């Protein structure tokens, strides 16, 4: 490598370094400007909302004035980053307020930008963007777009249909359960939990007529969702729906039924029903869960436990023996043990 | 004139509470942290302090104890995002707390308390 080549090489490295430093400087300056801009938008929005909620009768704040103020800090149709930031501020604000002021804010949001930004997102080709648009619509309670959002309830993308189903719950409440039999795609556990939580947050007073109609669904996820709703709202009068599904042919439906049942203390009649169907539960681990539930929620029923101890289910005999042993029936367990021992001896003698 | 001190890190809640207080004919000092407090403020006997409890670098209970110790006041209202029952119980155990409001808040409730004063 001669001297000229070395100097070219050094020049090349230096020029890369200079470009690198320039890009760092540009990035730092851009971030500084952006942080300032965001802070300005936040302060302006806070000022606008506070003045709108508590308007000064001597100097009233009009909607056109609000729009002008927002425009002056960069909330314009072409500036999508600013509009997105404003949407996040709007959602944050709406989440912090209840009562009459919540209604006022909801009204304000229909009169100011973001220029249908959320609505335009739901026609985007990008699924994530579409789901985000639906989410913003229900978070800001913009119920005028309900018809558009409902169309996505069976969408092939899980995020889009999940957000659409949650939006239906937020806007329609218990009435949204009437769509349950018509949902075509599976609903994951996470989706079910989100729906139950939203229903509980927005509509804490149960409307049983919609729940009863939804019982007709033959969808497995629908049955699981309904049981979770019964559990969340502690609907003691509806526990029969859960009991019916303890012997359902699907493992996960039975699992959900047992899980939901565990939060209820049932009447003695219903407990007798559980004992009757106990042996029909095909999975031994689920039987063990049910046995535990029966033990914790009812008095010791000696006949039932002895039936299990002498019955054909070998896997749970130890659990049954443990319950009897710890609850004053040691001699029954010993009797069972010795009876087995004598049978063994007879077999050996033969 | 009756005076209120509002301490909230969230600018939106801060501004809304400030407006609420001013509309009800109170003089209001609104700050985002205790660092913005002046010596004069520490000598003023506020009719109300409306404060959050979640600030960087200090535990919620310690913050409330510090506010109670350094700022003279008659009533202390807590408005916070930390609405867990355990926190609420611990805050009320400190004594001298007029009210505890967890987000989401109904501002009318705070307004009634201020108006009734």
UniProtKB/TrEMBL annotation, chain A:
Highest taxon in the source lineage: Bacteria
Keywords: Membrane, Transmembrane, Transmembrane helix
Segments traversing the membrane: 6-30
Record protein name field: HEAT repeat domain-containing protein
Species whose genome carries this gene: Christiangramia sediminis
From TrEMBL, chain B:
Source taxon at top rank: Bacteria
Species of the source: Christiangramia sediminis
InterPro entries documented for this protein: CheY-like_superfamily, Sig_transdc_resp-reg_receiver
Keyword vocabulary terms for this entry: Phosphoprotein
One GO biological process term: phosphorelay signal transduction system
Domain Response regulatory: 3-117
Modified residues (4-aspartylphosphate): 52
PROSITE patterns per the UniProt record, alphabetical: RESPONSE_REGULATORY
Official protein name in the record: Response regulator
SUPFAM superfamilies: CheY-like (SSF52172)
């Amino acid at each position: 490598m001669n001297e000229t080549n070395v100097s070219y090489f050094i020049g090349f490295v230096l020029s890369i370094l200079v470009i690198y430093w320039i890009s760092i400087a540009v990035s730092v300056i851009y971030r500084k400007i952006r942080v300032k801009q965001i802070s300005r938008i936040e302060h302006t929005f806070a000022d606008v909302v506070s003045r709108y909620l508590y308007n000064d009768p001597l100097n009233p704040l009009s909607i056109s004035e609000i729009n002008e103020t927002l425009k002056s800090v960069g909330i314009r149709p072409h500036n999508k980053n600013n509009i997105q930031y404003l949407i996040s501020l709007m959602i944050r604000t709406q989440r912090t307020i209840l009562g009459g002021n919540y209604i006022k804010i909801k009204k304000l949001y229909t009169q100011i930008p973001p220029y249908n930004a959320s609505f335009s997102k739901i026609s985007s080709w990008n699924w994530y963007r579409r789901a985000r648009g639906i989410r913003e619509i229900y978070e800001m309670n913009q119920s005028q777009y309900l018809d558009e959002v409902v169309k996505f309830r069976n969408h092939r993308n899980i995020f889009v249909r999940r957000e659409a189903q949650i939006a239906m719950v937020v806007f329609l409440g218990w009435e949204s359960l009437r769509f349950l039999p018509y949902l075509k795609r599976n609903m994951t556990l996470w989706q079910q939990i989100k729906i139950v939580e939203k229903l509980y947050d927005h509509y804490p007073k149960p409307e049983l007529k919609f729940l009863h109609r939804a019982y007709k669904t033959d969808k497995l996820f629908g049955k699981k969702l309904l049981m979770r709703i019964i559990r969340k709202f502690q609907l003691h009068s509806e526990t029969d729906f859960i009991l019916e599904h303890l012997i359902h042919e699907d493992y996960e439906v039975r699992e959900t039924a047992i899980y939901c049942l565990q939060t209820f203390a049932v009447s003695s009649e219903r407990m007798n029903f559980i004992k009757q169907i106990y042996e029909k539960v095909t999975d031994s681990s689920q039987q063990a869960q049910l046995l535990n539930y029966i033990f914790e929620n009812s008095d010791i029923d000696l006949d039932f436990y002895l039936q299990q101890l002498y019955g054909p289910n070998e896997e749970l005999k130890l659990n049954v023996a443990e319950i009897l042993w710890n609850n004053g029936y040691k001699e029954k367990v010993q009797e069972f043990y010795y009876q087995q021992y004598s049978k063994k001896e007879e077999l050996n003698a033969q | 004139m009756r005076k209120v001190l509002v301490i909230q890190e969230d600018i939106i809640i801060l501004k809304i509470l400030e407006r609420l207080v001013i509309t009800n004919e109170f003089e209001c000092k609104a700050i985002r942290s205790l660092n913005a407090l002046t010596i004069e403020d520490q000598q003023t006997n506020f009719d109300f302090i409306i404060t959050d409890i979640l600030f960087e670098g200090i535990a919620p209970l310690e913050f409330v104890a510090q506010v109670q110790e350094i700022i003279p006041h008659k009533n202390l209202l807590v408005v916070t995002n930390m609405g867990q029952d355990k926190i609420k119980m611990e805050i009320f155990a400190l004594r001298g707390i007029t009210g505890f409001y967890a987000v989401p808040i109904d501002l009318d409730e705070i307004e009634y308390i201020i108006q009734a004063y």
